[in-house]
Amino acid sequence: MNKWMRRLGIALAVFVLGVAQSFPVFAEPAESYVIDKEGYKIPTPLGYSVERVLIGDYHYGMLKNPEDLFIDAADRLYIADTDNNRVVVMDKLGQILRVFGTEEDGLELMSPRGVFVERDGDVYIADSGNSRIVHLTPEGELVEEFVAPESELIDPDFPFAPVKFVIDPGGNLYVQSGNDYHGLLVIDGTNGFQGYLAPNKLKFNLRDWILRELATREQREALGKKVPPNHRNVTIDPEEGRLYTVIENTDSDELKQFNFVGINTYPAARYGEYSGKNGIFTSANLVDVAVDRSGILSVVDSNQRKVYQYDQEGNNLLVFGGSGSQTGFFQEPVSIAVDSEGLLYVLDRGRGEIQVFRTNHFASLVHEGSRLFHEGRYEEAMSPWQEVLAIHSNYNLAHRGVGKALFKQGKWQEAMKHFRLGEDKANYSKAFQEYRHMLMRQQFGWLVLASGLLLAGLYMAVIRLGRYARKVEFAPSSVPAWDHAVMVLFSPSEAFSRIQSRPRWSPAILLILMLVAARFFEIYFTGFHYAGTRPEFANLWLETSKIIVPLLAWMVSGWAITSIMDGESKLKQIAVASAYAMIPMIVGTVLTTLLTSILSLDEKAIYEGLRVCIWIWTGWLFLIQFREMNDYSVGQTIRVMLVTLFAMLALLVAATLFYVLMNHIFKFAKELFLELYIRSQ
């Protein structure tokens, strides 16, 4: 019986394995997308495909933790094979041509981490383990060594440890030495120190400042010295001679372009991708940058395992790659280079290989459109951009390119449409300004008449409301809520006195709801070029809480502080009066929102000025409210309001901390329950 059961089990296992092998195994598909200015990912067709993979050969051995890759003018690859203490030279198909650092050449390289090749074929190697840069002929003969330059200006806390460098046409070396944060060391052809270039600045951090101010001397010493981030890598544009660097340990301005006086000319922004999953936050870590003949930057990120492409204005063109074991994905990418054909070579230290990527049709169109666009040939760029939109209608940069061409042709309305789709507020405003000017010329008479009637109507409305406020001040009507609303605008002292004597919840709740509605109106009807929140991404619950929570905190804090400081108002009185004090904010939000439909960004000062006036008016009403309802002097009222504001902020911070704590407790309880449940099974 056991014998038959064993045979049956073997037959069943063979059958299951056969069935399992009959199904294909699907690898995770490669993805490509762009990151817009708001940080949202927009999927695109795949921009690059793997052409081939270069891994060395069995005669010379495999690469071992390589650190750097350089492609010379003849499309030869130079790889700093760090843990093998050598530099490998291969052709673009992966055939090894020669090796520097063998026993025969006597160079005795130790952990080389950078390599650079001049146009004449001379090779420079950052021999990091030996604290030098060696200069070799194309045949591998030693020409000279660059060692630690002598200068009192060099910080002795950072010994010379070259890791990455480039050489300009004048023979000057720009060296990143270890973790030296002072900038790139500039060394001339005679090993003389010429100074530091492009030092990064330490950004102000409120949290760190508070910690250091409150900490003791021992605690400050334990925290250590805060220093600026250092350059991780440096590249030079072979056509223009500009320096590009990538910065590590920072959350903005990770990519920079320097002129030769050390000024960053690249747009200040956040580059790379920042992601979070299951409570784990992963930042970008840009480790290398390559620039092609069109000025397109390709940047590799070792944390996200991705490649980003940017144009000269900092616009993201494409993103591809990711973490994985199949081709098209990376384990630990550390360097990137581009050859004369535009092929991208990505060096993966974890795999010890180089993946070669070729552009697909979509990426080729994007690159062509971007090149023509930044050369100012907008109408020529329109054709590739239209082809891009035919493939992918949501590609923002293509809409901007088409909009620019239409703007040059004087088609303002069509240009506005494409600028809106391309999220280009500045150019949308310019097209809008031209379109508005055209309408004013065509419909000048009607526009003057409509404007006159509107202004006359507003003037009459203000006059009538003022008369009504003076009337009900002496003879109240049968609708006290309406009386109070009008009087708050024209006779606030009397209005708050009456509200204090007869506070009612229903009009206060209605006014708060109107304030929320005004915010919704602002989100959905503000002109595109003035919009701060995109309607499609607006979280209405969050927007509501951003209004109601601070207002409630102000009411509670005001009641608490006035109770302590000999005030006379009660919580209900403060709450109702505060709601009435928000009337200028309600009316002003609606009016300024409508105003964005006729103003361009050049008239933004008018818009901002009106908003400032609304805030001042609202603040003035709160001051009158506190003074009248508590019988304070002006000076005492100001002090109470400042203390109330501080208390409100403290209350909001405490509520936030409580929420975070409860959230952690809930997550802990959930994980504990799941653990106990699994163990009980």
Automatic annotation (TrEMBL):
<keyword id="KW-0812">Transmembrane</keyword>
<dbReference type="InterPro" id="IPR006977">
    <property type="entry name" value="Yip1_dom"/>
</dbReference>
<feature type="signal peptide">
    <location>
        <begin position="1"/>
        <end position="27"/>
    </location>
</feature>
<feature type="transmembrane region" description="Helical">
    <location>
        <begin position="638"/>
        <end position="662"/>
    </location>
</feature>
<dbReference type="InterPro" id="IPR011990">
    <property type="entry name" value="TPR-like_helical_dom_sf"/>
</dbReference>
<dbReference type="Pfam" id="PF04893">
    <property type="entry name" value="Yip1"/>
</dbReference>
<feature type="transmembrane region" description="Helical">
    <location>
        <begin position="605"/>
        <end position="626"/>
    </location>
</feature>
<dbReference type="InterPro" id="IPR011042">
    <property type="entry name" value="6-blade_b-propeller_TolB-like"/>
</dbReference>
<feature type="transmembrane region" description="Helical">
    <location>
        <begin position="547"/>
        <end position="565"/>
    </location>
</feature>
<feature type="repeat" description="NHL">
    <location>
        <begin position="317"/>
        <end position="360"/>
    </location>
</feature>
<feature type="transmembrane region" description="Helical">
    <location>
        <begin position="508"/>
        <end position="527"/>
    </location>
</feature>
<dbReference type="Pfam" id="PF01436">
    <property type="entry name" value="NHL"/>
</dbReference>
<feature type="repeat" description="NHL">
    <location>
        <begin position="97"/>
        <end position="139"/>
    </location>
</feature>
<feature type="transmembrane region" description="Helical">
    <location>
        <begin position="444"/>
        <end position="462"/>
    </location>
</feature>
<dbReference type="InterPro" id="IPR001258">
    <property type="entry name" value="NHL_repeat"/>
</dbReference>
<feature type="transmembrane region" description="Helical">
    <location>
        <begin position="577"/>
        <end position="599"/>
    </location>
</feature>
<keyword id="KW-1133">Transmembrane helix</keyword>
<keyword id="KW-0732">Signal</keyword>
<dbReference type="InterPro" id="IPR050952">
    <property type="entry name" value="TRIM-NHL_E3_ligases"/>
</dbReference>
<keyword id="KW-0677">Repeat</keyword>
<keyword id="KW-0472">Membrane</keyword>
<feature type="domain" description="Yip1">
    <location>
        <begin position="488"/>
        <end position="654"/>
    </location>
</feature>
<protein>
    <submittedName>
        <fullName>YIP1 family protein</fullName>
    </submittedName>
</protein>
